[in-house]
Amino acid sequence: MRLSSSSTSSAGFNPQPEEGEKKCLNSELWHACAGPLVSLPQFGSRVVYFPQGHSEQVTASTNKEVDATIPNYPGLSPQLICQLHNVTMHADVETDEVYAQMTLQPLSPEEQKDICLLPAELGTPSKQPTNYFCKTLTASDTSTHGGFSVPRRAAEKVFPPLDYSQTPPCQELIAKDLHGNEWKFRHIFRGQPKRHLLTTGWSVFVSAKRLVAGDSVIFIWNENNQLLLGIRRANRPQAVMPSSVLSSDSMQIGLLAAAAHAAATNSRFTIFYNPRASPSEFVIPLAKYAKAVYHTRVSVGMRFRMLFETEESSVRRYMGTITGIGDLDPVRWPNSHWRSVKVGWDESTAGERQPRVSLWEIEPLTTFPMYPSPFSLRLKRPWPSGLPSFPGLKDSGDMNL
Amino acid sequence: MRLSSSSTSSAGFNPQPEEGEKKCLNSELWHACAGPLVSLPQFGSRVVYFPQGHSEQVTASTNKEVDATIPNYPGLSPQLICQLHNVTMHADVETDEVYAQMTLQPLSPEEQKDICLLPAELGTPSKQPTNYFCKTLTASDTSTHGGFSVPRRAAEKVFPPLDYSQTPPCQELIAKDLHGNEWKFRHIFRGQPKRHLLTTGWSVFVSAKRLVAGDSVIFIWNENNQLLLGIRRANRPQAVMPSSVLSSDSMQIGLLAAAAHAAATNSRFTIFYNPRASPSEFVIPLAKYAKAVYHTRVSVGMRFRMLFETEESSVRRYMGTITGIGDLDPVRWPNSHWRSVKVGWDESTAGERQPRVSLWEIEPLTTFPMYPSPFSLRLKRPWPSGLPSFPGLKDSGDMNL
DNA sequence: GTGTCGGCCGTCTGCCGACAA
DNA sequence: TTGTCGGCAGACGGCCGACAC
Description:
2 copies of one chain form a homodimer.
Chain A: E1 4-8, H1 27-34, E2 46-49, H2 51-62, E3 80-92, E4 98-106, H3 109-113, E5 132-136, H4 139-142, E6 148-150, H5 152-158, E7 170-176, E8 182-190, E9 195-198, H6 202-209, E10 216-221, E11 227-232, H7 248-265, E12 269-273, E13 283-285, H8 286-294, E14 303-309, E15 315-325, E16 341-345, E17 356-357, E18 362-364
Parallel strand pairs in A: 7-11
Antiparallel strand pairs in A: 1-3, 2-3, 2-13, 3-4, 4-12, 5-10, 6-9, 7-8, 8-9, 10-11, 14-15, 14-18, 15-16, 16-17
Helix pairs in contact in A: 2-7
The first copy, chain A, binds a DNA duplex (21 and 21 nucleotides) through residues 138-141, 143-147, 149, 151-153, 188, 190-193, 195, 197, 199-200, 202-203.
Subunit structure (chains A, B): Homodimers and heterodimers.
Domain TF-B3 (chains A, B): 133-235
Subcellular location (chains A, B): Nucleus
């Protein structure tokens, strides 16, 4: 049983969205918890929604493969161009898990005929806060025997400065979590050798959030001199709920039926995006999609790079080679760009990485200029002939970007 | 995030279903936790499934009214006659909340033409265990300051007898919860005046299950000399999860789409029934439905009785008067028997009780014989003419019961 | 008959520097 | 630089009968 605290935020960049009615959910903190690679599309922009990706998220969350005979939704394209009417950031009250709620409206055929992208619709990378640190908790950090050992650089960078003339130097820290709840900690600099510690208040936080060794905490010191505090749980290889509310089969069907109905009637529908549960983002800025699909030449054998998040919440590149291009599910989702690229990874520890990726996730290594200025982007024949598309767009003419 | 421990059980009456592969979920305990009024339909029997009722359960679970424009499923009848292929009892690993999973298959038009009910399909009332007790926890019971005070009659009825010659008499009790986990308690008879107490082991149970004052515990002493232990949480008036997996709108659509697809293709679909979250049962034995709908005369002004569960897990009757008969939702669900009876309740505290009930929930007070022998039941013109029904059944002839 | 409390003892929480990796 | 430990003091857990409703 879960609640969610939420706050509406237009584009995901409100430093302190004080909306009044609801408790403020800090955007910086949300993004810090979501990870460096996660960016939410801009409010008001056009996006491409992938039912397959959404389905993957539900599969991952319910930990159950689809086994029922899912009805066909012949009218449902594998990629829907949508107007993004609302993006709100949320956090599960029980687990502090971050997720976003988006309201999408599939574009009508007329609206799709003349799409002019705004520069903003390219999608700004999520602004990672500058003064923050993320530490994976040790056994000592989570034990009842002691407090939290703060890495020295982290303490000096994100905590308010201590008065080192006192012995020992100490202060009270107040940090706000994703729900706006405040947590008080005694910050002290002591021991031999000297180190920064959080003592009083730490253990109640650990037990309240049910943190265990391996989970991570994030401290942020923002421009408004607020201390923010988020958590990121370790990827426990546990099975998750069959929900006891609705069968996973019905959830899979519901996701497709909701999208199909919205597409058929050009009405709005609502989805949840859980960045840490979902294998891949499935709501992509239209410009990013168009660039990748129509302005990038890929072929079997081509080398590419792709960004991944490390365990320390930073980013690193992995290299790979394209080994094939084709439909992930030729029967149910023919001509889909979702995970249409089969890849091999350079490193032997590549078992964890997907064997299939989508075009917009990778950066092919070519000699051609990869990213021309977005203002000069112009699409000729957006959909390859023969590809199923939206009504009114099949074999249509130009699409202005 | 939740797991579920489960056990397959043919009809819900296996005293100890040792299925091997999965942990045994005790049927008696499941029914004790579900409540005295809950009975599961028999495996293999025919049932009537009500999408409206299922929808109400999802609404109650997600605590969110339907606000999206739900697509119409014109082919979906408000009541589907189904073969019940599977009933399994489950318990949420996080909360111990009981629920049932059922696999339903809508009958084909041919199968519906000649329905012969077996006597067993009348639905046996759930066998409540004899030696059990249910106590609502007090502040003292859940406080860390002490143990659990066992009501004297309860202890004498369901706990193994103590050797009263010892001073003080005490023993170790081992009780199995819904997941098969064992809990050990020190049972002692001491104090002035003497009373039964559970001391050592009680507090770990309380904290592990996160019990608070107002929740209830159930102890059962079954025929196999096993002590079983279940919990029933108080109806916290809390909002529950919007699930962060799928929007409640999509869940509502998914439930309908899954049922509509199954009905159209006569294929199986799976539902979860949560007896404590759902306002009413929405999978009803066919015989019970038929009796109520075709063999009961009700009219406005008629008096009736209806059973409710008390806070002490027993049963009491409430009296009321029928104030109207008609569709709950004439637009989306015309000619549905779901909550077709508008009622007024005699007692002023009736605010908690539904203003609308279904025919099979009530017991009208008439001078006619209410329940003829099931073997002599015979249906003439099962569906009132003009009522939409299943293909092939409209205005069809007799239906043998 | 049973809910709550004061009293009392024992365990565990939680703060400290030592020490080593 | 920081993870873990032994030492220690105080808080809280938890078992008891008293007492009242």
